[in-house]
């Protein structure tokens, strides 16, 4: 794969992830597990979603550095800095600037598009091999430490139990459980791992 293709894949992947999180938030059906945790905690402590996500990614990055250093690259840094802020910006424009009234059909469409963007986005920057997000590296670490007895797609589902943390903090903040989780969270947790693996296989064939 040429360097140009790798850069394009990395940038598109990160953009898709940012769009995914914003669409999930706008759909009001619940966000992905990692975002659910970060929304719950950021709401509790009064930080912006993007700022808290940057901090937690930096903490996870320390673990990744020692356990799966090969996962770190330019894409890792760009992802951990921009995804949260992209989501914050798009939600700000949709809710405060344009003030879009999202009805049920649009919410369902946003949910479906978000799931495709999530899986495609992660697969794109994994195939680009310029580093993956610290959180996405957790599944790689689980696969490595279990000597592949727990494959990536199952490890991804296992790592998504962090949604419980988001629920606890959302309730503690008074926002309520449904401010961070819903059917969208369940769909993402159950299908993101397998879909990432599916798109990754297809994209590897396409790029290589």
Brief summary:
This protein has helices spanning 3-27, 33-45, 49-67, 74-97, 104-128, 134-145, 152-159, 163-173, 183-207.
Write the SSE topology.
Elements: H1 3-27, H2 33-45, H3 49-67, H4 74-97, H5 104-128, H6 134-145, H7 152-159, H8 163-173, H9 183-207
Helix pairs in contact: 1-4, 1-5, 2-3, 2-8, 3-4, 3-6, 5-9, 6-7, 7-9
Query: How is the main sheet built?
Result: none
Low-confidence stretches: none
Tell me the overall shape: globular
Mean pLDDT: 88
Explain the overall architecture:
This protein is mostly helical and 208 residues long. 78% of the residues lie in helices and 0% in strands. The chain is built from 9 helices and no strands. Helix 3 packs antiparallel against helix 4. The termini are close together.
What tags apply to this protein structure?
78% helix; mainly alpha; 9 helices; 208 residues; globular
